[in-house]
What we know:
alpha/beta, 2 domains, 22% strand, Metallo-beta-lactamase, Chain A, binds zinc ion
Amino acid sequence: MNSTPGTEIIEVASGIYARLHENLTNAGIIVGDEGVLIIDSLRMPSFARDLISDVKLITSKPIKYVIDTHAHWDHSWGNEEFPDATIIGHQNCYVEMMDDQWNEEWRSKILTGGDPWAEEAKIVNITPPNLTFDSSMSLYIGGRQLELLYFGRAHTSGDVFIHVPDEKLVFTGDVIQDRRVPYLGDSYPADWPETDDKIAELPIDTFVSGHGPNGNHEDLLEARSFIHELVNASKNAIQERRNAEQATESVIETLSDRFGDWVGFDTLDERIPEVIAKLS
Ligand SMILES: [Zn+2]
């Protein structure tokens, strides 16, 4: 399949696809009888249009639903390209996407980041979900149930999981990633471990993440362990009344044996003081 350069489309179950984008953000594509559901609209309108082109390689059915796994720009700033679709997200995702300060902080970070999509950030019309839920909802597509689940705050305040029970499959957004350190800047480290414990209960064989490769249940448990150990090591550093520099050093040292080769571990130290401040 000649999808957009840098992307790979993997059929993870009949009619359910993971569209993995090297070093960028993944999307999900679920084809039903009448239409298509997209998981994450990606970082910019042009990225959403590439995704729409790739969907056309699979089916000519219209895109009826978009689910935002969470409010981060690289997952949701393509929403405006789906004016005819129902855009679904957690109520807290809606609140974050309506937060002018959050939006402008991200916009200026992107504009000064110098990436090829930086200029496009100027013209993005940030479009929040138009259908929200609090704890869970079910959506039936192609005769299959999708469970949209909220387990509490974690990577953001509004992370949702798309569980396909018939296929033992879950889309995890950025909360669970395979051997990658998730972005911690907008996170809730006090809540995240408990949220992970709830995802770990799902009877799944495969997860599709917002970044990086697909994983299995064992990989999911490893991602949960990372968060637990990060939070425990940070709490220990707080108890030992270490200063920010010593605390960061001790957390990194504790985690490096098991997680040192994960993508993003090399810059984890930049985020530790923030995590510790949130836990203090
Ligand atoms: Zn994110």
